[in-house]
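FAQ
Q: What does a multi-component entry look like?
A: The components come first, one per line:
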Amino acid sequence: MSENIERRRFLKCLGASSLIIAPLGCSSIEEESDANKPHYVMVFDQNKCTGCGECKDACNVTNNLPDGKSRMIMEQQSGGVAGETCPHCGKKNCDCERKYVRVSCQQCKNAPCVTVCPTGAAHRDEKTGIVTMDASKCAGCKYCIGACPYDARFINKETDVADNCDFCLNTKLSKGELPACVQQCRYDALIFGDANDPTSYVSKLLRVKDSVRIKPGFGTEPSLRYIPIVKLGV
Amino acid sequence: MDGTIDFTMGLSQGIAWPWPIAVYLFFAGISGGALATAIFIRFYKKQTENTAFYKAAAIISFVTISLGMLCLVLDLTNPLFFWRILVYYNLNSVMSIGVIALTAYIPLTAIIALLALEDELRAIPALKVLMPVIEKLKAVRKPMEVMVLILALSVCAYTGFLISALIRFPIINTSVLPALFIASGISAGAASAKMLAVSLFKEDLHSQDMKLLHGAEWPIMFAEAMFIFMIATSLMTGNAGAQSAFAAFHTGEWANVFWFGVIGIGFAGPLLLNFATSKSFSHSAKAFYASGVCAVTGMMCLRLFILYAGQNFAI
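Then the predicted structure of the entire assembly, as tokens:
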């Protein structure tokens, strides 16, 4: 009996509050204009990455990067506890449990590099919203490198200007292809697509999978999402 | 950070802004500080002649800002790309706004120096061509001085805003930084202009201008110390990231630069020279130059500490 009243009251409140809140939500103009534009995101699945490094090689070849510099690197992280013996191999220092993390431009929605760039060389591509470089405008002041909370920008030694991962905007996306690293990955550890398109695989994936962003506290809203390793049998 | 993903490697390898930027911040601070002080005294005391201090400040501000620009350009990955900063603008960028301020400030400091050194230039026959120009510029001297006073303080403050926009460094990303840079710029700028006024333009050590400057020195130094204290306290009592950056004050070589350079030479030096010595020594030329050099050295150490310790402690 009392449960019934509770439910009725709950539904009443729900109806009333939705009447008040719904118009507020609909009146947001920004939301609407955002939805028309694509929001390209990349998902890195740590469970699937084996650290083979072929994504990096593919990126270097596609984007013609000089030796020793890359738009992305893989960081190997050990899950072991320092000073304790590994339960697998019995050694104190091991990397039995290997985890890899993709280190590259996070493609922030609120990108500090774009804000601080004095010349507008670090900018957002109008059509795709992807953060990219206009190398002909860059003065090489390195302000964007200092401003990036992810340390994901660098100076291309051949051109003397700043560089970042732009999801292969000019080398692949413009031809309708997927970014080079995504094409190369044999383990499906990288997924790329438009998060504003509800039918895209990325949208569906993000709906069902838990993913995290790196350093969300900076409020930069990265478009690169990570699916952390899932431990089995613990 | 429990249970989330993070990476510690970076692509840029090393700190983005090395020592030439610290030297630039130092020169820009001295330039703005010296000129702002001189013009402020000129307005305050309603001076119409070119005083020794005004001349010295005009020379210093023009020379230091030019040297600062040289540091800035040489620090670019390719100095030949410098023109791009002057051609393309992004008004969201502090640096771009600073460029606009500097493009007005630098020519104005040159004009102020020309007007201030009128008598000296007249003595050189080769520079006779400049005289009609100086005569014409005299007509707009007052508005130019008002403008350059505002710009000088803006340049000091801008160097603080420039680096405080770097959000990942708790020591650098503080709202007090522009105020600290104005205060330290004024104290070092005034000190260097004072030294030049006495050595080059034979200003009396105990003239009216010098007395006024000596009086202003201590409150400015107190403000500076307070701003540094504010930054340290906010880091010490802040979140984990801020607290980890507080280590910059007690560990590593930059802590030494802070304690010996900023606190020891910059603050304790002038205080001891003026208040812990006999009256005859503290009023001597030796003590005057020594405390001036202390103020300037302390300021350079402060810029180095903020820039290097700041970039070493990222979150």
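Q: Is there any commentary attached?
A: Sometimes. For this entry: Residues 27-32 of chain A have pLDDT under 50 and may be disordered.
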